[in-house]
Every structure is written in structure tokens, then in C-alpha cells.
# Entry
Amino acid sequence: MDRRRVLAGAAALSTLSVIEPGAAMTREVGKAATPLRILILGGTGFIGPHEVDYALARGHSLTLFNRGRSPHAWPAPVEELVGDRSTGDLKSLEGREWDVCIDNPTTFPFWVRDAGRVLAGKVGRYIFVSTISVYRDNDQPGADETAALASYAGDDPLGETPASQAQGHAALYGPYKALSEAQAQIWFPGRTAIVRPGLIVGPGDQTDRFTFWPARLARGGQVAAPGSGTDPVQYIDARDLAGWIIRLAEARARGVFNATGPARPLTMTSFLEDTSDGVGGRPSLVWIPAAFLEHQKVEPWTDMPVWVPGVGETAGFARRDIARALAAGLTFRPLTTTASDTLAWFRTLPAARQSKLRSGLSAEREAALLAAWRSTPSSEG
# Structure
């Protein structure tokens, strides 16, 4: 396994109900003590709609800035400004002021620089949504936000654009985000909160990196499970992340936060059992050692979503310290709820989309893997 490539892949005044995508019931959200004017760069991707719904429920005023290509029906009025950060078109932001800006979708460092040129002095707080992938190394369990970051080896980091680099270039994802964090600190010194999420999951996730498991476990039967079951797992429900980001804005928070979970260590065994409980599945888990998976060219994270071996250079990947985020109010809903809601959402998608998951083993490849494992003497133990 090319592990390097794999790694590159948290004062109510009144209440109202928020209906969350895929949720079985409404959840009461208290009004914020002080309404804010919030600008969200993006807002129509994965976590953005959850941020909008939560912020509206809290009584805030919302402005979204994006290319206008993914219209949404919001539960209350939302101002929408059209522009394109990839081409430097930020004209619709000029001459405006907000209490806080939440930057969700940044891919290249120049996006933050350009936003800084327009918004510096115009927003009270800047929240930059980064990634756990900014870290240089993943071999130390319990590493916190002070760990060394990935470095950029090119000549001109602010010259990197969609034209000069293919978007989604896995090897540059972490370095670009680290450089973007630095730009946020330059343009909004002392007023920046940097949020580094781990694997983001839940209703609306189009990558299927988590959705694979609720869908597969619900079918039951023999299920190929990676490793020994003792490897660690970290993830965060997009709704928990989104609500916490809004609360960070309300608290005028600043600093850097690892934003993943749950609050206590979770093993792959518990992850699969809780997910199965959430979707009502009755699978028979067949644990297949990492060495055998490697021999069969079964990749962690992609072929076996969520899972990364908890040893060697990936020993700390799913053991990041989250004490700062917990102290700042990050909370988590049960995994059973996330699994149930995600499967309910997934089943609303077209049949063709459900038939071809974008992550995880196909049924045919899983069957072949199970057959290969059963044919080895080791499987008898």
C-alpha cells in the first residue's frame, strides 16, 4: 500500500425546530444571544447548507458568496452574491461589512489572499475551514495542533491556480491548505479561527467514504472487515461540525482546532457494530489482516473507507488530539444516528446512483476477497 497517497486521500432566548436532512425528527435549537451578520464563502457544498440551516435557526443574517450554480431552497431569507474565486471575481463583496466570514471551500492559497484584500477591515472574525491533512506526519498518536505542517516545494505558492495545477491533486492538498491557513493569519491577524476537520460524514456526502458502510452493513451477509478490529477511527458528522462552527462565530473564537471525533477513542470493531445497529443490519464480520489486504491490493481509505492501519507511519492518523475543540464546545451525536440518517438520505438518491458507490469494494470484488481469504490456512484461526 502507498500509505503516503492514502493519507493525501463543535444563552438560549427562545427555540425553533430545525429539520435536518435525513433526520427522523426535528431538533430544538436555541436563539443566539446576539444576532450576527455572517458571510459564508461557498455555502452550497457539503457542510455549507448545514451551517446555513443552523445559523438561521439561531437568528443570524446570512449572506452566501459562490458561483450560483447550486441553488437551494432555504427555510428563511438568505442573501446570495455571485462571484468566482477561481477567476478573482469578488466584486460583489466590495463595500460590504459582516461580523464574521466563514471560508468553506478554499482550494488554493490565492483564494484567501484575494478574499483578504477585499474583506480585511470589513469582517470582525474570519473562520477558515481547513483539514486534518495539513499535518506533515501521521505517525504520532495524540499529536495536537502544534504538530508540524506539510510543506510546499514549489516556487510560487500564490501563483498556483486551477490552470497551473489539476484540482484535487492529492499530494498538494495538505500543503495548499497549510498555505491557505497562513494567508488567513496574514490578512486577519488575531481574528482568525482555523478549523481542521477529519473525515466529514453524514447526509449529503457525495464521496461515499462513510456512506459505503451503512449501505453495505444494511445488506447483511458476510462482510469483509479490515484489520483486526482494533485500529482507531475518527470522523465528524457534518451537522455537528457546521453547528459548532456557527457557535465558534458567536463566541468570537480564535486559534486552531482539530475538529474530529468522537470524544472517546473508537475502534473499527465498535465503528462497524454501531453503524450496523444504526441501520438495523445483521452482518457477519470477517476480519481480514492488513497484510493480506495489502497482498490483495485492497487500499485503506478508498477500498476500505474510514479505515487506516493504526501502526507505523499512520499510527496517529485517527488518533489526533481534540482537547481544544472539546473545550470550545464541540459535541457529537451518536454514531447510530449518523449511520441511520446517512442511509435514509442515500436511499432518496436515484437508483443508478445507489447502484454504484463511489468508495469501497464492489460486491464482486468483496466476494473475491472473501473467497481468497477463506482459501488461506490463516483464515481457520
